């Protein structure tokens, strides 16, 4: 039998498969599940557990960014990492900052 905590997680958790790489994207703030105001600026953690190189990254998501801020530094032909595009399926138009780390996906 599945525990109720597994059916209804206490913190937001997403299992991701981007470009054939599996990872877990999760937050530590339980308010993200119940308070829409918490979705303004928040942090999520990405864990990609590969045998050869397990890695963790922290991303900051701003759902109320301005379009001119997002366009800054993005030239023609540049592509966003797959995980950023996956995050934008939930929060359209959000700005994703990798907090000084190299994008994992």
TrEMBL record:
EC number: 3.4.19.12
GO biological process: protein K48-linked deubiquitination; proteolysis
Broadest EC class assigned to this enzyme: hydrolase
Record domain Deubiquitinating enzyme MINDY-3/4 conserved: where: 2-100
Keywords for this protein: Hydrolase, Protease, Thiol protease, Ubl conjugation pathway
Pfam family, one: MINDY-3_4_CD
Any GO molecular function: K48-linked deubiquitinase activity
Domain of life: Eukaryota
Reactions accelerated catalytically: Thiol-dependent hydrolysis of ester, thioester, amide, peptide and isopeptide bonds formed by the C-terminal Gly of ubiquitin (a 76-residue protein attached to proteins as an intracellular targeting signal)
Function: Hydrolase that can remove 'Lys-48'-linked conjugated ubiquitin from proteins.
Family listed: Belongs to the MINDY deubiquitinase family. FAM188 subfamily.
Protein name: Ubiquitin carboxyl-terminal hydrolase MINDY
